[in-house]
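Quick one - first record:
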Amino acid sequence: MNIQITNQTFDEERALYNLNNTDIINCTFAGEADGESVLKECKSINVHGCSFSLRYPLWHAKKFTLVSSKMDDKTRAPLWYSSNGSLISCRIEGIKCLRECKNINVNKCEIISPEFGWKCKKVNITNSRIDSMYFLFESSNVEINNLKMSGKYSFQYMKNLHIRNSELNTKDAFWHSKNILVENSIVKGEYLGWFSENLTLINCKIIGTQPLCYCKNLRLINCTMEETDLSFEYSDVSADIAGNIISVKNPKSGKIIADSIGKVITEDAVIECKGNVVIRDKIQSRALIN
C-alpha cells in the first residue's frame, strides 16, 4: 500500500526528492523558499488535486500520474526526462513542458506552454486543448485524437504521427516531417507541410495560403481547400479535392483532381515539372509541363 501525503505545503529545494510508492493529495508546492525540483527522481507516485508554483517540479520521474492538478506559469520546464506517466484533467501553464520524455499519456488537459513536447517518444494526446509554439518539435511515434491546438510552427521535424478528429490552428505545420497521417480534421494556417515526406491527409479541411510545397509522396484523399492559393509547388502529389482550389503552381509530379481550380500557374519553374491537373466538371486532364 502506498504512503499518503495530504494537505501539506512544500517550498524547499528538492522537498520530496526521490520519493517512491506515494500518493500526494491536495498539496501545494509554493512559498518563500522558492525551491526547485520538488519531486525530482520520483518513482511510482500518484499526484492528485495538487497546485504547483515552483520550477522544474517533475524531472526524471518514472511511473507517475498527475491528476486534477494545476501548474502555473512559474513552473518553468515542469516535466523533463520523465517516462511512463499520465496527465489527466490538468491545467499546465509552464513554458517548455514535456521534453525528452517517453510513454506519456495526456487526457482531458488544458495546456498553455510554448515549446511543449520537444524530442519526446510515444506520446498519446486525447480530448485536450493545447496552445504552444513549436509544438512537439522533433518528437516521434505520437497519437492524437480530439485535440484543439493553436500556435505557430507545430509538428516540425516529427516522425510517425497520427492525428484524428482535431482542429489545428497553426502556421508552418509539419515542416520537414516524415510519415504523418491526419484524418477527419481541420488544418488552418499558412505554408502547411513544406518539405514533408509521406504526409497524408484524409477527409480534412485545409485553410490558408501556399500549402503543401516541396513535398515528397504527398497524398490528399477527399479533402477540401479554402484560401489555398499557390498550392503544391514542386511537390510529388496525389490529391483528390472536393470543391475549389484558388490556384495550383508548378507541381513536380503526380495528379491533382478538383471540382474547379481558379488558376494553374506554370511559369518560372526552376526544376522540371510534370504534374497533371484534372478538373472533374470538365473531365479534362492537362499536363502542366510538356
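second record:
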Amino acid sequence: MNAVLISIQPKWVEKIANGEKTIEVRKTAPKQVPFKAYIYCTNTPQLHHLYDLRHVNGDTGKIRLGCVQHNKYSLVAGGWLNGKVIGEFIVDNVVEFESEFHDDNSTEELRRVWYDEDDGERDAELFAEDSEPNYLCTAACLTWYELKNYVGTGDRIFYAWHISDLKIYDKPKELHEFKRECPKTSIKRSDCITCPFEYYEPRKSVSSCDAYLKRPPQSWQYVQELE
C-alpha cells in the first residue's frame, strides 16, 4: 500500500484524533486508493499547541488530544505534539469535486465528479449551492465559507479524502523517522549534505539512496511505510 505524510494544523488534528473530522479536504490526492496517511501536526506554536490530555489529567486510558491557544502553554508543559507524527489513518475513498465561487457571491456551487463505469467519461452533478448544508462541510468540520476560502474563487477542483481506521500513537514519532527513495539519482553524493529538505543515507547495493525527511511537506508527499 502506498503511504503519504500529510501536514495538518493542530486544531484539525484534534478533531481528527477525537473522531469529529472524518473527511480531509485537499487540492490534490494520490492516484491509487486506498493508501495510508501519516499525520504530521504542524509546528505552529504561535497559533495553537496540541497536547496529550493525559499530561493534564494523569489518565492512563485512551489517548485524547486537545488544542489550546499558545498563551495557555504552561498548563500542559511537556505534552506538546507540535512538529511530530501523532498517528495514521487509511484513506479508503477519495471523491473529486468541482467548485465555482465568485467574490461577489453571485455563484456559489459545488459539483461532485463521477466517471461512467463503461466508457470512463467524466461528468459532474450539482452537489450543493448557496451555502446550503451538506455532508462534505459537516464531515470536514468546515463552514461553507472556510471551504470557499481554501479552494479559492473561480472554477476549481479539489478532493475529499475519507478517513478510516484511525490510529493515534501512544508515543509520537519524529519526522526524521520517515524516508523515501531519493529522486535525485544522478546527483553527486557530496551535494546531499546541502539539501535543505532531506538528509540521505546511501544504499549499499544500488546507486540511489534513502532520503530521511528533515522538513515536513506543505501539503503531503509520498513516504515509505514504517516497518
